[in-house]
Design brief:
The complex is a heterodimer of chains A (230) and B (788). Chain A has 230 residues and is of the alpha/beta class. Chain A has one domain: P-loop containing nucleotide triphosphate hydrolases (Rossmann fold, 3-Layer(aba) Sandwich). Chain A is 32% helix and 25% strand. In chain B, a hairpin with a 2-residue loop joins strand 2 and strand 3. Chain B has 24 helices and 20 strands. In chain B, the strands form 2 sheets. A 6-stranded mixed β-barrel of chain B has the order 2-3-8-5-7-6. In chain B, strands 12-13-18-15-17-16 form a 6-stranded mixed beta barrel. The chains are: A alpha/beta (230), B alpha+beta (788). At the A-B interface, helix 2 and helix 3 of A face helix 1, helix 9, helix 10 and helix 12 of B.
Chain lengths: 230, 788
């Protein structure tokens, strides 16, 4: 529940470079990235496969560490956090929506949503269930609350995944091709949901290669070979 | 309400329920094994304390001439003496269902004031009256006596006397009569007189005032008492100071239970391998889930807590299963042990701390076992976890033997390669099973060693029958009478004496027996481990046993030693040391020993015969007895050497079997481990099995593939167990040496044992793999290909 200064950008990347070692030598996934995103923005990151979209998202989520440069999210210097600190920070400051939903198969929809609150202790124990149900209601899947993920459709699973990402009221929502595994109708519905969240003030950074979703975005960042294309 | 993460833990366990059950069973087997031994030890220890110490066992016993009230009063007045009592022990014979057997009768001037080695009446009359016998409980079944019925007793060459059995009592200081083949009883001095024994008391039992004194301190007090007795002009023939507060068999029992406990803990440790396998497999299958949980805020500590919590649940479930089993088995085993020690377990509860300790070990062992794989699994970064390729990991090293193997059928090759895919898991499973096999082979080796030790013990004895006469006779008459009996190929009359080493300061060592064959004996010839055996012409030559040398380390071959025999000092020269069993003993020429005991007559003989076969020999023994009695030589008892040997071997093998039980426990744990491993293997290869089915594999092929994979591990365990049996044989042999008697260690397992172990491990493998193999055949192609 990070509350960044309203005047400050909620995300700031300064001279960020990310290289990976490989048998063929170092591979540069991102180079000299400078990017700021303000609160309430819906930024879509596009680019071809291998352009560095997912790497960028991983850096914002603290999943990867930049080789050089700074990553500031919600006022926190993510690049400087230890692995242990990053887990707790990530749980509170960012919500992540994956392409393949990644719900835990042995937990019900409501329990999946309660899990981040449980890990981060953001809500008192007795309030977690109510909040989870409220989020599922907001995403239109409250009636699926007690079902296991395997019994839900792809669209329903992704809505539960979004509800889980919102569980700790993060400053930033990061979505990695959230519609990539959905049919076009479900995909449109999902985009409506995400756009609705942005209208309510949620900052959203979405990686996609689907041009159709760009119409919902307030800004598009295009990556070409690891660099932002002007 | 449980937090979602703990619900996930429980559901993961449920998802893996068949493997969870196997692991829980294996841990439970380990806890039950170790717990049962711990319960037994605690119960026996408690009962020993509560019953043995409460009976106020004698701190020292002095044998002297007749004891009167004035002497007892003088001893009681010594500052370090708390209590003194006089009694007489008489050796007689009792008519039992098996014939005349040895009887040991204890007489006190007044049983109602008995305060040392307190005898506890159980049923019937107490104290015994003149002409009556109260029988010691452990002798009851063996003697065939019952309360209200008469029992025939005879002493020396006296007339048999029918004595009424009026009650049953327990003396916890005595070894059980049924084990010793002795009828123990309590009688009045008046009854002794009727049997022809002196009615006066000749043993002074002393209880020291300070219960914390060690054996040496008590020995000093005993010699103060000895000085007081000798000051009255009496002779003291023996001073016995047992280990204070310790039952005569307590050390043996402790050694046995410690050894069993150690193997129980080993079984528990092996069950920890299964926990490692299960948790590692779970973590490997949940790498992505770990990544997701980290991505939504879980710290490594929280994740580790979840998986360690899962291990804790396994431990708690296993403890819940094992504790009642351990309690029941421990109580049953303790009852057996208590019976062997002549105690009564009734009403004794397992101490709370023992149960708490089992709970703690049972719950925490899986947590400790899981710690390393959990720490490793939870350290993975989110990016590594999300990139995880999951179930396709783990393979056979390219270029290895298995990838280059040719001429092997492809399904067999697949099974062989599969067995080596998860090498750590295979190694742990193999080690668990092989350790059980090692102990199993070690236990078989121990049995062979025991038989070898008994062979060595009986090899020097070239006779088949031992006779005891009701009174002493000249040796020549006995030998002449025996040699005249058909079937007798050799006979010697032997003497014996009770002795103790007399030290220069006037104190005596612990008592031991001297067996005295003729110096030129043709029926007894030990091979000396140092020095030599008795030779014709020896007079004061003494051969000592290794057990006596262990108790009296100051003795040496060539040394002169003074022994107190019948209260008189006698000089001997130690000429040799022999291995003659667990008891302290020595050997000296009959001609000298018989002279020391007052006259040159002897009361026992050994006889050799060519007659073979148990039935013929028994008939012959009856004939010998009849012939001797016709010549006026009344026989008190006869014992065939083969019978004595069998009893001894059975006793020793019983201890070996107690140790062997732990091998079975470990094999059970190993078998459960193999079942769990194969179950995990089938689960992880669900997709592969689906592919195999899609390309035409039948039920039988799948079944064979799983069974062969299990057999590969089993056969490897079989092979590993063979070298592993060497240290196990040494450990078991040494443990047995501490408990009973040293045995010659065998290192190489016998071929029959190796083949038995092979058959056993193959059987275990077939049973352990049956369910996983069946489950594998139930996997449909569609379900398998949809499996992630």
């Amino acid at each position: 529940m990070s509350q960044p200064n309203q005047a400050q950008p909620v995300i700031a990347l300064r001279d960020v470079t990310k290289t990976y070692p490989s048998p063929a030598g170092a591979f540069t996934a991102l180079a000299d990235i400078n990017l700021t995103i303000d609160r309430g923005e819906f930024v879509v990151v596009v680019g071809q496969s291998g352009s560095g979209k997912s790497t960028l998202l991983n850096l914002l989520a603290g999943i990867d560490r930049p080789t050089t440069g700074e990553v500031i999210v919600g006022g926190t210097a993510v690049h400087a956090l230890s692995e242990r600190a990053k887990s707790q920070w990530r749980g509170r400051a960012v919500g992540i929506v994956f392409q393949f939903f990644q719900l835990l198969p042995t937990l019900t929809a409501a329990e999946n949503v309660m899990l981040p609150m449980d890990f981060c202790g953001t809500w008192p124990g007795r309030e977690r269930k109510g909040r989870a149900l409220a989020l599922l209601e907001r995403l239109g899947v409250a009636d699926q609350a007690d079902k296991l993920p395997a019994t839900l459709s792809g669209g329903q699973q992704q809505r539960v995944a979004v509800a889980r990402a919102l569980a700790n009221a993060p400053a930033v929502l990061l979505a990695d091709e959230p519609t990539g595994n959905l049919d076009s109708r479900t995909s449109d519905a999902m985009m409506d949901v995400l756009a609705g969240l942005v209208r309510e003030g949620q900052t959203l950074v979405m990686v996609t290669h689907e041009h159709a979703v760009m119409r919902h975005a307030s800004r598009t960042v295009t990556l070409v070979d690891g660099r932002i294309h002007a | 309400m449980l937090d979602p993460r703990w619900r996930k833990v429980l559901r993961d366990l449920w998802l893996h329920k068949s493997r969870t059950v196997l692991v829980v069973l294996a841990i439970a087997a380990g806890i039950a094994g170790a717990g049962a031994v711990l319960n037994t030890w605690a119960l026996v220890r408690r009962v020993t304390r509560e019953q043995f110490l409460v009976s106020h066992p004698a701190s020292a016993t002095l044998r002297t001439d007749s004891i009167d009230a004035a002497l007892i009063a003088r001893v009681r007045s010594l500052p370090d003496v708390r209590e003194a009592e006089a009694r007489r022990t008489v050796f007689a014979s009792a008519r039992t269902p098996g014939g005349w057997s040895r009887a040991v009768l204890y007489a006190l001037a007044d049983f109602s004031t008995n305060r040392i080695g307190v005898i506890k009446p159980e049923t019937g009359a107490w104290p015994p009256e003149d002409g009556a016998l109260v029988i010691e409980r452990s002798s009851l079944a063996f003697s065939g006596a019952s309360v209200g019925e008469p029992l025939s007793l005879v002493m020396g060459n006296g007339e048999p006397l029918a004595v009424a059995v009026t009650g049953i009592a327990r003396d916890v200081g005595l070894a059980p009569g049924w084990m010793e083949h002795v009828v123990y009883g309590f009688v009045t001095p008046g009854t002794l007189a009727r049997l022809g024994a002196p009615g006066t008391m000749d043993e002074l039992q002393v209880l020291v005032g300070d219960g914390s004194l060690d054996r040496e301190a008590i020995r000093r007090i005993a010699y103060e008492v000895k000085a007081v007795i000798e000051g009255t002009g009496r002779r003291v023939t023996n001073v016995e100071v047992p280990e204070p507060g310790r039952h005569i068999h307590a050390a043996q029992m402790d050694s046995l239970l410690y050894t069993q406990g150690a193997f129980g803990l080993l079984a528990l440790f092996l069950s920890g391998f299964l926990v490692v396998n299960l948790i590692s497999a779970m973590l490997a299958g949940q790498v992505k889930e770990i990544g997701i949980m980290k991505a939504i805020g879980a710290s490594p500590g929280q994740l580790a807590g979840m998986y360690l919590g899962l291990a804790l649940v396994l431990g708690l479930l296993a403890s819940a299963l094992a504790l009642p089993v351990a309690g029941y088995a421990g109580r049953e085993y303790a009852e057996l042990k208590a019976e062997l020690l002549n105690f009564d377990l009734t009403g004794t509860a397992i101490p709370f701390w023992v149960i708490a300790l089992q709970c703690a070990v049972g719950a925490l062992m899986p947590v400790a076992a899981a710690a390393l794989p959990v720490a490793r699994g939870c350290r993975i970064t989110v990016s590594e976890a999300l990139r995880d390729l999951g179930l396709t990991r783990g393979g056979v090293a390219s270029g290895g033997v298995l990838t280059r193997a040719t001429g092997v059928a492809r399904p067999l090759l697949l099974s062989l390669r599969n067995a080596f895919r998860r090498r750590q898991r295979m190694a742990l499973t193999l080690l668990a099973l092989a350790t059980g096999g090692g102990v199993y082979l070690g236990a078989l080796n121990l049995r062979a060693s025991i038989r070898g030790a008994v062979d060595l013990l009986y090899q020097p004895m070239r006779f088949q029958l031992v006779l005891r006469f009701t009174r002493p006779w000249p040796a020549d008459s006995i030998e002449a009478a025996l040699r005249a009996i058909p079937g007798v190929s050799g006979a010697e009359a032997w003497s014996s004496a009770a002795a103790a080493v007399a030290y220069e300061d006037g104190t005596l060592g612990d008592g031991f027996s001297i067996t005295a064959p003729p110096a030129a004996s043709g029926l007894l010839a030990y091979e000396a481990t140092s020095g030599r055996w008795l030779e014709p012409g020896d007079t004061t030559a003494l051969v000592i046993s290794r057990a006596l040398l262990r108790d009296e380390p100051g003795l040496a071959v060539g040394q002169e030693v003074t022994l107190a025999i019948a209260g008189r000092p006698t000089r001997w020269t130690i000429v040799g040391v022999v291995s003659a069993g667990p008891g302290t003993s020595a050997f000296a020429p009959r001609e000298t020993v018989a002279g020391l005991t007052g006259d040159s007559r002897v009361a026992s003989a050994v006889v050799a015969t060519e007659i073979a076969g148990p039935a013929s020999r028994l008939e012959w023994v009856g004939h010998v007895r009849g012939e001797l009695e016709a010549r006026g030589l009344t026989v008190q008892s006869t014992q065939l050497l083969s019978e004595g040997r069998r009893v001894m071997e059975d006793h020793l093998l019983m201890v070996a079997d107690f140790l062997g039980v732990m091998a079975w426990l470990m094999i059970v744990v190993g078998g459960l481990g193999l079942a769990s491993t194969m179950s995990l293997s089938v689960l992880e290869r669900t997709r592969e099995i689906g592919v195999l089915r899609a390309i035409g594999a039948r039920h039988r092929s799948i079944l064979t593939m799983v069974q062969v994979e299990g057999l590969v591990i089993a056969i490897l365990s079989w092979a590993v167990a063979i070298p592993l049996s060497v240290p196990m044989s040494v450990l078991l042999g040494q443990a047995f040496g501490r408990i009973m008697l040293p045995v010659p260690l065998r290192f190489a397992p016998e071929m029959t044992g190796v083949l038995l172990w092979l058959a056993l491990v193959v059987g275990v493998s077939v049973v352990a793999c049956a369910w996983p193999a069946f489950r594998a055949t139930r996997i449909t192609t569609a379900a398998a290909l949809a499996y992630e």
